[in-house]
Amino acid sequence: MKVTVFGIGYVGLVQAAVLAEVGHQVVCVDVDQSKVDNLEKGIIPIYEPGLTPLVKSNFDAGRVEFTTDAEAGVKHGDVIFIAVGTPPDEDGSADLKYVLAVAKTISEAMDQHKIVINKSTVPVGTADKVRAKITDVQESLGKSITFDVVSNPEFLKEGAAVNDCMRPDRIIIGTDSVGAEKKLRELYAPFNRNHDKIIVMDIRSAELTKYAANCMLATKISFMNEMANLAEVFGADIENVRLGIGSDPRIGYQFIYPGCGYGGSCFPKDVQALARSATEAGYTAKILESVEAVNYKQKEKLFEYISGHFNNDLKGKTAAIWGLSFKPNTDDMREASSRVLMEHLWEAGAKVQAYDPEAMEETQRIYGVRDDLSLTGTKEAALKGADFLVICTEWQAFRAPDFELLKQSLTEPLLFDGRNLFEPKLMQEYGLHYYAIGRGLSIKER
Ligand SMILES: NC(=O)c1ccc[n+]([C@@H]2O[C@H](COP(=O)([O-])OP(=O)(O)OC[C@H]3O[C@@H](n4cnc5c(N)ncnc54)[C@H](O)[C@@H]3O)[C@@H](O)[C@H]2O)c1
Asked: Are 437 and 301 in contact (CB under 8 A)?
């Protein structure tokens, strides 16, 4: 099938690569010329496990191409994905300017029936806006070509995106068109062999399903962080509580890890956007507002511990930070907890020596060169001469450190763990002063 994907980001590029892998003929369009040039040279703009060989082999085989030529892109695809960003507007609502710009481009260039698929995460009602935009532009050009608009939200997880797209849990198709449904079933047939994962529904329900999924996951995290804060208040250990409640199959162990807050390009903006859409519709989404408020505070947690430990005097201190990306296996720094921490540390006059397996280039891009930030080649180098260590991201490589070396390298044996990777008792045996999230034991021992 001839497919066009607008937006070569985390979603668009992965989607394009897996569709090409199963034999579809894919053209990817982006407005970023340097991204397109790099991809043509085999330079992949993001880190995602398994993505580089997949893109390269399909590019070499001629099944995927990259261009900034939007008109050619529109002409190519029978189905056209919109996978551009929907960042938060100033008031938290999803900014649809990129989505609607693509809709306009599609309308201008289309010369025959097209199926336009919204893969970006968009507020309920966006398909109607895309449809209206295409119709209006066509009318202004004196055209009247039929088209369908479908909602097909993406559920991939960064860090496991290729696998998630190759083996999706579900494929949501929101459509009112029998023809579009048939075409999408054919498009996704290679990913739907084990059992039927396709769930067809009306467009608005499909749009809301995506937000509901992310908001449910964010709610689990904020709920657990609230329990961790209560564990601190009451002198309990959240790790015991986690195991205690996770054993209930109605709750389960997944997504109930307390920590220093959720980040990334999706949860923060999607929780905000749904709450904002609710307000606009005259409904106060109290749970969503609380989920966001709890998370905002949770991202301050590590700095509070650190600042409290040093009696609010961090001038001249050096923090070693392990983990900068918002979660492991990605280089994505959007809304990462590490950013909140670093910015607070800098404001308080401290320096940062940081290491991340993949996100250092991105950190440099965001913060540039500055005296109070040094990015080190190894996690051990980040420790040298630092006053304390903070773990912000639970990369595998941080799970079994050399604690003796850690003690020798730091000026104080002091560890702030934003991801609860270690046992407080063990840390005590190693002679480390250990702060974790909601672990009563570590609180008592302070
Ligand atoms: N990142 C994720 O894990 C994830 C998961 C599921 C859904 N989503 C949703 O998918 C959408 C895309 O997210 P992302 O993380 O891939 O974004 P991204 O920022 O990584 O990529 C977006 C791309 O769109 C391009 N673009 C902007 N305007 C364009 C235009 N007019 N024509 C062509 N290209 C254009 C940008 O240059 C950029 O390369 C968002 O709505 C997001 O919420 C993201």
From this structure: yes
Looking at residue 262, its pLDDT comes to 98
- Best substitution site from 4, 6, 11 to test ligand 1's pocket, by max atoms within 8 Å of Cβ? 11
Is pLDDT above 50 for 443? no
3-state secondary structure of 376: coil
- What integer pLDDT is reported at residue 437 of this predicted model? 97
For all residues of the chain together, what is the average pLDDT?
96
Q: What is the DSSP string of 258-300?
A: --S---SSSHHHHHHHHHHHHHHTT---HHHHHHHHHHHHHTT
The CA 98 to ligand 1 mean position distance, Å, reads 9
Q: Sign of the C-alpha dihedral, residues 191, 47, 64, 62?
A: negative
Residues 6+ apart with CB under 8 A from 430: 403, 404, 407, 413
Cα of 13 from ligand 1 centre, angstroms: 9
State whether the beta carbon of 102 lies less than 6 angstroms from ligand 1.
yes
Using one digit for the tens of pLDDT, what is the confidence trace for 358-381? 999 999 999 999 999 999 999 999
Mutate to test the pocket of ligand 1, among 5, 8, 10 (most ligand atoms within 8 A of CB): 10
Catalytic positions, written as ranges: 266
**What does the pLDDT look like over 20-74, one tens digit per residue?**
999 999 999 999 999 999 999 999 999 999 999 999 999 999 999 999 999 999 9
Report the alpha-carbon distance of residue 225 to residue 442 in Å, rounded: 16
8 Å CB contact between 4 and 79: yes
Q: Where are the beta strands (DSSP E) in 11-87?
A: 25-29, 64-67, 79-82
How much is the average pLDDT of 96-105? 98
In whole angstroms, what is the distance from residue 427 CA to residue 419 CA?
14
Q: How far apart are CA 339 and CA 342, in angstroms?
A: 5
Please check whether residue 211 is in contact with residue 273, taking contact to mean a CB–CB distance below 8 angstroms: yes
φ and ψ of 30, to 5 deg = -140, 155
pLDDT tens readout for residues 301-351? 999 999 999 999 999 999 999 999 999 999 999 999 999 999 999 999 999
**Short-list 136, 166, 139, 148, CA closest to 51:** 166
